[in-house]
Design brief:
alpha/beta, Rossmann fold, Dihydrodipicolinate Reductase, domain 2, 2 domains, seven-stranded parallel beta sheet, five-stranded mixed beta sheet
Length: about 250
């Protein structure tokens, strides 16, 4: 499986290159794209229009603002696309949906299989304890730009499928008491934390805490490569982590 890697020169680009070099899922990177092209054994370009190498799919680990360029190239080249960036605006999400009408697109706020399982377990807990209070706490490194994280919103949206009247409350301040239909979402930024997501489901008599902690960015690279392999041969459409774990 040959990959075009958008965000080649970044941290996650380096993680994908490392995982591919170890032969994970027989993946290899045939070319990269980055606003700061890096010289090396694998060609890296500043623009998609410069790519001449053949590939089976695209993995996007760049910045959400580049989604139009990568989506346009995926459609023009008829290549499956894995969108592994976060922080997309509503307009950018529409670009992703539009591309998925022509090619298979995998779009997930977090590429971890463990986080996908956390979403399932949190949703089950919310459904089983319909009157419970739910709080989501996410912790990331001090350089992360978006808050709350895309993963925290992904978890909240999953819970929202069984709590249709839920309201998202981002942080807390003031003198108002907690309402029954709230889902609290809290962002912590410190140090060099890769990612911690915790869901607290609590009644007056018991508390369930579901927690996922990422120890290395490598797990996101593996997830993106697994998603790319999953897309090959698939019909156009929008796919996510639930497609992988069933």
């Amino acid at each position: 499986m040959n990959i075009i890697l958008n965000g080649f020169s970044g941290r996650m680009g380096a993680a994908v290159l490392e995982v591919a070099s170890l032969g994970y899922m027989n993946a290899s990177v045939s070319a990269g794209v980055d606003i700061n092209p890096k010289a090396g054994d694998i060609p890296c370009y500043e623009r998609f229009s410069d790519i001449s190498e053949k590939a089976d799919c695209i993995i996007d680990f760049s910045n959400h603002a580049s989604i139009k360029a990568v989506a346009d190239y995926a459609v023009a080249a008829s290549l499956p696309l894995v969108v592994a960036t976060t922080g997309h605006t509503d307009e950018e999400k529409e670009i992703i949906r539009e591309a998925s009408r022509s090619v298979p697109v995998f779009f997930a706020a977090n590429m971890s299989m463990g986080v996908a399982l956390l979403c399932q377990m949190a949703t089950l807990a919310a459904k089983t304890l319909p009157g419970a209070d739910i709080e989501i706490v996410e912790t990331h490194h001090n350089r992360k730009l978006d808050a709350p994280s895309g993963t925290a919103l992904m978890i909240a949206n999953a819970i929202n499928t069984v709590r249709e009247n839920a309201k998202f409350i981002f942080g807390r301040q003031g003198m108002a008491k907690r309402e029954a239909d709230e889902i609290g979402i809290h962002a912590v930024r410190r140090g060099n934390i890769v990612g911690i997501h915790e869901v607290i489901v609590s009644t007056d008599y018991e508390t369930i805490t579901i927690k996922h902690e990422a120890h290395s960015r490598t797990l996101f690279a593996e997830g993106a490569i697994a998603a790319a392999a999953h897309l090959i041969g698939k019909a156009p459409g929008l796919y996510d982590m639930s497609s992988l774990i069933g």
